Please model this.
Amino acid sequence: MSARPAGQSTRIEATSDLGVFGTLREGLRLSPAITRGIGITLLLAVVATVGRLVVPFTVQQATDRGIVGDADPDLVLRMCAIAAGVLLVTGVATSWVNVRLFTATEAGLAQLRIRAFRHVHDLSVLTQNTERRGSLVSRVTSDVDTISMFVQWGGIMLILSMLQILGATIAMLFYSWQLTLVVWLVFLPMLVLAPRGQRLLNGAYGQVRARVGGMLAAISEAVVGAQTIRAYGSGARVLGRIHQAITAHRDAAVKAQVYSSLAFSTGTLLSGVALAAVVTLGTMLGLAGQITVGGLLAFLFLVQIFTGPVQSATEVLNEMQNAVAGWRRVISVVHTPIDVEDPERPVDLGPRHPASISFSGVGFAYPDGPPVLQDVDLEIPAGSRVAIVGETGSGKTTLARLVTRFADPQRGTVCIDGVDLRDVRLSDLRGRVVVVPQEGFLFTGTVADNVGYGRRRASRERIEEAVAELGLSAWVASLPQGLDTDVGQRGESLSAGERQLVAIMRAYLADADVLVLDEATSAVDPATESRITRALVGLTAGRTSIAIAHRLSTAEAADMVVVVDAGRVVEVGPHAELVAQGGRYARLHASWVVQSG
Amino acid sequence: MYALPGGAVRRSLLLIGRGIRSQPKTFALAIGASALWGLAFVAVGWLLGRLTDDVVVPALTGEELGTSRIVGAGLVLLGLAVTTAVTVAGRRIWAGIGAVDVQAGHRRLVTRQYLRLPMSWHRSHPTGQLLSNANSDAESAGYVFMPLPFALGVIVMVIGATAAMFASDVVLGFIGLTVLPLVLAVNAVYRRWMTPAITQVQAERAEVSDVAHESFEAATIVKSLGTEQIEEDRFTEVTHRLREANVRVGRIRSVFDPVIDLMPALATLAVLVVGVHRVSSGDALTGDVITASYLLTILTFPVRAIGFVLGDLPRSLVGHDRISRVIDARGYLEPGDVDLSGTGGLHLETEHVRLEVGRGAEARLLLQDVSLVVPPGGTLAVVGSTGAGKSTLVDVLLRMTDATEGVVRYDGVDVRALSEASRTAAAALVAQTAFVFEDTVRSNITLADPGASPITDEQVWEALRLARADAFIRELPGGLDEVLGERGTSLSGGQRQRIAIARALVRQPRLLVLDDATSAVDPQVEQAILANLREQACTVVVIAYRNATIALADRVLHLEAGRVVDVGTHAELLARDPGYAEIVTAYARDREQRA
Model:
C-alpha cells in the first residue's frame, strides 16, 4: 500500500498484479483456515497414493508367481486378499483427505468472502464508486465461487495427481528404468507445449466471456428499450444486432471448444502412444531378460495410473487459471487502501445538539478530473435549514456530501462545531450526520423493517411513534398491511415517492444532528409529494439541514440559500434577499416560477 | 406449441429428439465419432490380451519370435491410439458445436419474440426474467447435448466390452457383467444424493449474491447510518450457510469418489483370483485375464458420462420450459398495409378504448371507455395520479399494445390498418425513461446504420439544437461518432432525455407523444426545450406531471383508474373538476404552506 497525497482517493483495481505464486501465497495468507492441519492431510494423501500402486504390484506378483509357469492359486488368493485390504485403507484415506481439504478450504474461503465484503463497505463512497456495483458483487460471489469450484473439482485432484505421477514414476523405475524413460519421453512434448496451449485456451475462453457480455448488452436493449424500439419501428435493426452478437458468441464458443478438444485428445494420443511403445519395447526388453511378464503387465497398469492425471492436467490447469484470476480480483479489493480512516487521536464532539458546519478554503476534484469545488468558504449556523442550488454539474451535490465525509477535500477543511471532520471518529460522525439519499433504497422486507433499519434497531413502538410524529399515519394505514407491508425486491412494490417516505422515517429514527437531504428529481404524484413535504418539515425541525435542491420550492422554504456555480459559491443569503438582489438566483427563480405556474 | 407434453421420460426424449433434429449433421458426426471411439477403446483391451498370448508370453518364456511380429503389434496399437485420439477430438468438437448451436438457436427464437410481442406482454414480465430466459435458460436447455454423444458412445463401448470379455472367457465375462451394472447403480445412488446437495448450493449461492447486491447498492445508506457491522453480520450468516452446503457436497463426493475408484481395482483382483483358476485348469489363457482386467480398469470413468446426461436432463427440461413460455406467447401486432399521405399535424382520435390484460382471476382492466380527439396541430395534456393508466394510454395511442375493444385512428384510419413504416413515420414517442442504445450519437438519433439513413448530419444537429443537446454533444471527443451507453460515454439523466427528444424531433413527426420527457432536465433548459416544442407543426400528446407541461396544452384530459374523468381547458377543469384542481394546485399549496 503506497503513500498517497492527502485527500487523494483510491480506486479499486480490476485485478491485482501478483504473479501466480504470489497470488496463491497472498490468497492463503488471507484465508489461514485453508492451511490448517495441512501436514496431516498431505500425509494421508501420500498413503492414498501409495495404496493405488498395490494393484499393478499384485498383478505382477500374481502373474509371475501364480499364472505363468507353475500356477499357485492359493498364493494368488492370499495376495489378492491383502491387496483388497490395502485398497480399502486407501479408499478410507482418500475419503479423509477430501473431507479435510473441503472443510479447511471452505472455511478459508468464507473468511476471504466476509473480509472482502466488509472491506468494500469500509472504503470511501468515492472509492466504491470507481467500480460498478455488479462488479463489486461478483468479487465476493462468483469470483470466490470459482476458487471454491477449483478446490472441489480440480485442487484436490491436482495434489493427488502430482503424488500419483510421482508414485507411478518411482514404481515404474522399480520395474524398468528404460521403459520409464520411454514414457517420460513420450510425454515430454506435452510438458513443453502445455504452457503455450494454456495461453491459447485462456485467450479463447476470455473471448467467450467478452462475447457473453456483448450478447447480454444487445439482448437487454430489446427488453429495456422495448417501448422506444416499437415506437420507432426499429425492431428489425435491433434483431439484426442481437443475432450478430449471438453468432459472435457462438463462434467464440466453438473456437474454445475446438482448442480444448485438441488439447484433451493430445493427452489421449500420447497415452496411447506410450502404451504402444511400452508393449513393443517391453517385449524386446523381456527377450533380453530384463523384465518379466508380470513386470511388463504391471507396467501397463502403471502407465494408466501415470497418464490419467497427465491427461486431465489441461482441464485442471485451466480451472486453476480461472481460480487464480478470481483470487486476484478478490485480493485487489482487499488490498484497496481505505482513504477515509479514523483519526489516531479522535476529538470528542460532546453531547448531542444541533451542530454548525463550516467550510474554509475547500478545494476538491475527483480522481483524474477537473476541480469540482474551489475556494469554498461557508458558515452554516447550528439549527438552520440550508438549500444548495445550482445547475447540474455545478458541484452542489459534492459540496453537501463533503459534510458526510464521503471523501476528504484536497485543500482546506470542513468542520463540525469547529472540529475538523478528519479528527472525528467515523462512528461518532455517522451518529451525527445522516444522509437522506435521492433514491430511497429499500431492503427486501417489510416497511417496518426498513424504517427500523439502523445501528440500533428501533422498537415497534418507536417506529409507530415516528409515523405519527411525521404525520404519516394515514399513508401507513392506506398500505395493504400497514407497517407490515412487504416492500418487494429493492422496494419495487412501493412508488418512488413512497420509498422516499420510508427513507425519511429511517433518517428520523437515526436522530442525527445534521441532515443532508438529496432531493429527488424524479416525478412523484402530488398526494405523495405533499406527504413528503410535510414529513420533511417534521424531520428537519430542531436540526441543521442541508438540502441539495433541484426544485426551487425547497429554496423558498429554507433559512439560507447557497448558490453554487462552476465549483464556487457565488451567492449566500435568505431567499427573499437573493431575489431582491437580482443576481443569478433571482434569474433561476424567475424561470422556475413561470414554469411551475 | 414449443412446450413439451407428457411425463418426464417422454419430455426428455422429445427434448433430445428435437435438439438432434435441429442439428442433424453435427450430431450424426458426434455420435458416429463417439461410437467409433468406444469400439477403438474396447479393441485396445482385446488386442492387449491377444498380444500377451501371441507375443509377450511366448517371447518372454523363451520362444523364438521375430522382432517383426513385435513391431507389427506395436504398430497396430499405435494405429488404435491415433484412432482413439482422432475420434475423441471429433466427438468433443462436434458435440460442442451441436450444443452451442442448439443454444444459439433458442436465443434467436427467444429474442425474436421479444421484438414481436406487444408492450403489454413486456410490462407483465420483469426485465431480469427476460434476460435470464435469453441467457441462462437458453444455455441450460442445451446442457444435455454436450455429454449426450459421449454417453451414447459409452453405451456402444459397454456392449463391446461385455462381448469382448465373454469372447475371452465366459466366467470372466460374468464378472464384467456384475461389475458394470454395479458401477451404474453406484452412480445412480451418487446422483440421487448429489442432486439435492447441489441444488442447495445453488440456492445458497443465489442468497449470498442477493445479500451482496442489496448491501452494495445500499452502500451509501450503510455508510450514512454506520451500519457496516449489521451488514457484515447478515453477510456472514449467508456465507456460512453456503459454506456448509459446499462442505456437504464435498462429503458426498469424498465418500463416492473412492468407492467408484475402488470398484474396478477390486474387480481386477477378482479377475486375477478367478483367472488363475481358469488358466491353471486350462480353460483360459493369460491374455484373457489381461483383457478382462484392463477393460474393467478403463471403463469406470466413461461410464460416468451416462450419469452426466441423466444429471443434466432435469436442468435442461426446466430451461426448456422457461424459454417455451416465451416462444409460445402470442399476441403479435400484425401491421396493415394502408399508407398515410397527409403532412403537418395529424388528426388523432380514440373511440371507446378498453384494455384488459391477463385472464381469469388475474385479469385486470387498465383502460375503460377512453374516447378523445386531438385536432391537427392541437396539444392535449393527460393528467392523473400514479397508476391512473397514463403510460398504458401512451402504449395504445402508438399501437404498442392493441385495445381489447374500441379503436385508435390517425387521420380517420384505424392504426391497425396502417403499415409499420407509415405508422412509425407519423408518430414519435419520448418515453418516461429515456433509452439510449449502445451505439454512436448519430445512430442513436437516426436509428440506422451510418449511410443507411436519409437523415443528414445537418438534420441531426438541428434536432440536437432543438432538444438543447448540441452543446454537450459538441464537447464529446467523438462528436456524433461518440459511442454512448454502458461501455461508452455515460450521460446524465437529463442528457439522455435530451437525446431522446432529438431522436423524436429529427423525424418531424405528425404526432408527438411526450411521457414526462423532461423530468431530469434543469428548469431553465427545460423551458427552452418546451418553447422549441411549441413551434413544431405537429399534434402533441403530453403526459404532464407539472404545471409547466400542462401550460403547453390547449386542452387537458384528466384520467383516473383508466377512465376519463373530464376533458377541457385547464381553466375549465380547474373550475369544475375538484380532483384535477387537487393535483395541479399541489405545488402551489406547498409553497404557501412553507412560506
